[in-house]
Specification:
By secondary structure, the protein is an alpha+beta fold. It is built from four helices and eight strands. Strands 1-5 form a two-stranded antiparallel ribbon. A hairpin with a 5-residue loop joins strand 6 and strand 7. Helix 1 packs antiparallel against helix 2 and helix 1 packs parallel to helix 4. The longest helix is centred in the first third of the chain and has 17 residues. The protein is globular. The two termini are 24 Å apart.
């Protein structure tokens, strides 16, 4: 799902200057958790399955973010936990970054230090959903927990 949607048309929308219309590795988690808590029908189940598949495909491997000398940088390293970008391009689905100038950039290093340090462009937001909540929700009827969904055909 997108970071923001227009309240009337539901099309992807811009928020602050550095929050351009985009798919989101963060906000998608909240939408999926909401759907998983609702009574399930085929449309809900398909949306959940598609959302989980997208999150799995959007995971970024082999990088971590660290603070060095008062700046946030991306470090390439094997065998680190998965990360997700906050924003993914609507057309290419590649991560992008944006500073206060409102111009889309390909790397975190291209935006101003104030935004690198003051905003969460990378995170592990989907990890618990993918590792725990989603598998728990895949249990059959009568075994659901608070965050589960039912795969019931309509």
């Amino acid at each position: 799902w997108c970071a923001q949607h227009d309240e009337k048309t539901l099309v992807p929308a811009k928020a602050r200057a550095y929050e351009l219309p985009s798919l989101s590795g963060s906000e998608s988690v909240g939408v999926l958790r909401f759907l998983m808590g609702e009574p399930s029908d085929r449309a809900h189940t398909e949306a959940i399955e598609a959302g989980v598949a997208w999150l799995r495909g959007a995971a970024l491997r082999g990088i971590r973010v660290e603070t060095q000398n008062g700046d946030r940088i991306v470090v390439h390293q094997k065998a680190v936990p998965l990360l997700w970008a906050r924003f993914y391009d609507l057309d290419t689905e590649k991560p992008f970054f944006c500073g206060r100038d409102g111009i889309k950039k390909a790397t975190l290093a291209e935006i101003e230090k104030e935004r690198r340090m003051g905003y969460a462009y990378y995170g592990t937001w989907p990890q618990t959903l993918l590792d725990t909540d989603y598998p728990r929700g895949k249990r059959g009827p009568g075994q659901e927990t608070k965050h589960s969904f039912r795969n019931t055909p309509t």
